[in-house]
Design a protein that fits this description.
The complex is a heterodimer.
Chain A: H1 2-20, H2 22-25, E1 43-45, E2 51-61, E3 65-73, E4 79-81, H3 92-128, H4 130-145, H5 148-158, H6 165-180, H7 182-196, H8 199-206, H9 211-247, H10 269-274, H11 280-295
Antiparallel strand pairs in A: 1-4, 2-3
Chain B: E1 7-18, E2 21-33, E3 38-42, H1 49-56, E4 64-73, E5 76-77, H2 83-89, E6 94-97, H3 101-104, H4 111-121, H5 127-140, H6 146-149, H7 159-171, E7 177-181, H8 189-206, E8 209-214, H9 217-223, E9 226-231, E10 234-240, H10 241-246, H11 251-258, E11 307-310, E12 313-315, H12 319-327, H13 332-337
Parallel strand pairs in B: 3-8, 3-9, 6-7, 7-8
Antiparallel strand pairs in B: 1-2, 1-4, 4-5, 9-10, 10-12, 11-12
Helix pairs in contact in B: 4-5, 4-7, 5-7, 7-8
The chains are: A mainly alpha, B alpha/beta.
């Protein structure tokens, strides 16, 4: 079990590195088309001999630093397609690397945003109690019963068409994060409810501490523990959300690659049956989500976890 | 009576609003604590001792609320202070020591930081000063090797040491009143004696007043100057410790003293018949009447008022109405204390 968690962590670190500098890890630009090689199977073409750490196609690291250093490249006219190509002859592996940066940036950002809201709202409601608590919890129920998918479709329809696809996607995810904060908010509210009647909180009040101080020093450390687990659990959910939206054409538009967008060709029967390497993004999503589930620390299940959620 | 008590609690009433109506956990409680005095508050579990303590600190949690009375502390009524001013009183002028030192300390902070926190929230010290003060306080409550113990987490300390830490926290801002809510209940008997010694010593060294809440009459006998006996949210008897132990005036106090172990060996321990009534369903009249061996007609009619039964002594029992009526036909003392 320990080895599995180490392996999962290692995989996530590698994927994160790829997401941060996809150009370095990929031999080609994601939009470079080799029209002579559509749906080419994985392998080397035109007598390519790969070289490590060479200067290939130039790119800007993080969109700023101009460089051309790549981990693997082949001199012209050779081609190397680790995961084959799509119908336009674009290197599927390079696109997968670049897709990781969108998918793996958006999901943690959305999860972080939603947890931020959740800790603030849930913690506040739980600490204040009374009618504020009732109001916030009833409002969260409204958020929970809203079918998020239809909300997103409606939002897409409502947003002006002049808005760029990236801007739209960020709006959509900000909305999803807001809607998604309802469930963890209830978790944090419950935690605060059980903690605030704890004697050490009353003791802190008896020592003259005010509300903000108690929240920061005596409640937040416990909430952060739960928030970390919640974060690792909700990131896969947001990855899958991005995949779903992009798969249905509601996400980032071509030519920017995302894992969901890269699954769109699979809607064609011929691709589904004849070009198995096109499944690569699906495999990537499944593997990354599983790795996240594996590294998420379980809540302590010993009986004392009830009274002392340390 | 002394002219200026440090804390004077008068007609304090704290109710809990439950779906079945409001329950008076503290009902018309009056007592006072003078400077440098130790007052013991005794009673069984659920008699309202802890709620009285929390009410004095104004820390009663909803659905509980203070429904009436006044808490005059150093000439100010604590019940009329706004929350911000009240915070400057809590932990600085009046401090509270809890029963269970494990749960009263935050498990994720070092004990030194928790002591320093009290000083910091009252703006009494800078971060560095607070740390030195924490070591000094730990030394003062006789924790060995205080300089390294400040870096310990609560779970690394024994129960007695944790209670010493709580005492150190409560003394950090040099309060004038310390409320100790069952400070020894969670401890071993030998440790109990040490903690009581420490409390007594600190009390005389720092000229504190101490409100000692306990269900242990032995602790009261050793430590308190005066005692108030609580039953079902009311104080049924008050007076100097010696006088009450020698000659209890209320049947409940008599029953409590009779049920203390330590009589002749081999004799059966006496117990008060029946059990404590639920606060939501108190019997009419005197709350103790169903269990009282001396019950007679007026007991079930109305709750008895305070009767003066000796110098600085009062008891809520109609028995004394009969006696004082015989001795003193006017019986002015009794009616004067009635609400």
């Amino acid at each position: 079990m320990k080895a599995l968690r180490v392996a999962a962590w290692a995989l996530l670190v590698v994927v994160c590195l790829i997401a941060v500098c996809p150009d370095f890890f990929s031999p080609y630009s994601p939009s470079r088309q080799y029209r002579d090689l559509p749906y080419a199977a994985p392998g080397r073409y035109h007598g390519a001999s790969p070289r490590w750490l060479v200067h290939g196609e130039p790119y800007r690291w993080l969109g700023v630093v101009p460089t051309s250093l790549r981990l693997v490249a082949v001199p012209e006219p050779g081609r190397i397609f680790l995961l084959g190509t799509d119908e336009f002859g674009r290197d599927w592996y390079s696109r997968l690397c670049h897709g990781a940066s969108v998918s793996l940036l958006l999901a943690p950002a959305a999860a972080l945003l939603s947890l931020l809201f959740a800790v603030a709202i849930g913690g506040w409601a739980g600490y204040q109690g009374g009618w504020i608590d009732v109001l916030v919890m009833r409002a969260s129920e409204v958020f929970i019963v809203l079918p998020w998918f239809y909300v997103v479709v409606a939002l897409r329809a409502a947003l002006p068409l002049t808005l760029g696809s990236t801007a739209t996607l960020f709006t959509v995810f900000a909305l999803l994060a807001t809607l998604g904060c309802a469930t963890p908010a209830r978790l944090f509210r419950g935690l605060v409810l059980s903690l605030k009647t704890g004697e050490f909180v009353i003791a802190a009040r008896a020592a003259g501490a005010g509300g903000p101080h108690i929240f920061r020093c005596h409640l937040l450390p416990f909430l952060l523990q739960a928030a970390w687990t919640q974060f690792l659990v909700s990131v896969p959910a947001y990855i899958v959300t991005e995949v779903t939206l992009s798969f249905l054409g509601l996400g980032v538009a071509e030519p920017t690659p995302t894992w969901g967008g890269m699954l769109v060709p699979l809607q064609q029967y011929v691709v589904l049956t004849s070009y198995p390497w096109m499944f690569a993004p699906a495999v990537a999503v499944v593997v990354v989500c599983m790795a996240l589930q594996i590294v998420a620390p379980p809540f302590r299940q010993s009986p004392d976890a009830v009274t002392m959620p340390v | 009576m002394s002219p200026d008590p440090l804390l004077s609690v008068s007609h304090l009433t704290t109710v809990f609003d439950t779906p079945d109506g409001s329950v008076r956990a503290v009902d018309d409680v009056s007592f006072e604590i003078r400077a440098g005095e130790t007052v013991g508050l005794v009673g069984e579990s659920g008699s309202g001792k802890s709620v009285t303590a929390l009410s004095i600190m104004r820390l009663v949690q909803p659905p509980g609320r203070i429904a009436g009375g006044s808490l005059s502390f150093k000439g100010r009524d604590l019940l009329t202070l706004d929350e911000r001013t009240m915070r400057t009183v809590r932990g600085a002028d009046i401090t509270l020591i809890f029963q269970e030192p494990m749960t009263a300390l935050n498990p994720v902070f070092r004990v030194g930081d928790q002591i320093a926190e009290t000083l910091r929230v009252h703006g009494r010290a800078s971060r560095r000063e607070a740390r030195t003060a924490a070591v000094d306080l730990l030394r003062a409550v006789r924790i060995p090797d205080a300089a390294s113990r400040v870096n310990d987490y609560p779970h690394q300390l024994s129960g007695g040491m944790r209670q010493r830490v709580l005492i150190a926290m409560s003394l950090a801002c040099q309060p004038s009143l310390v409320i100790a809510d069952e400070p020894t209940t969670a401890l071993d008997v030998t440790i109990q004696a040490e903690i009581l010694d420490l409390l007594r010593e600190m009390k005389s060294a720092l000229h504190l007043s101490l409100l000692l809440i306990t269900h242990d009459l032995g602790v009261i006998a050793e430590t308190a100057d005066r005692v108030a006996v609580m039953y079902a949210g009311r104080i049924v008897e008050t007076g100097p410790v010696r006088a009450i132990f020698r000659e209890p005036a209320h049947p409940y106090t008599r029953g409590l003293l009779a049920s203390m172990p330590g009589g002749r060996p081999g004799r059966r321990l006496l117990a008060i018949d029946g059990s404590v009534p639920l606060l939501g369903a108190l019997p009419p009249g005197c709350a103790f009447n169903p269990r009282c061996p001396d019950r007679f007609e007026p007991c079930t009619a109305a709750p008895p008022p305070d009767y003066v039964v000796g110098p600085e002594r009062a008891a809520k029992c109609y028995l004394h109405d009969r006696q004082s009526a015989v001795r003193n036909p006017q019986s002015a003392m009794g009616t004067d204390a009635t609400r």
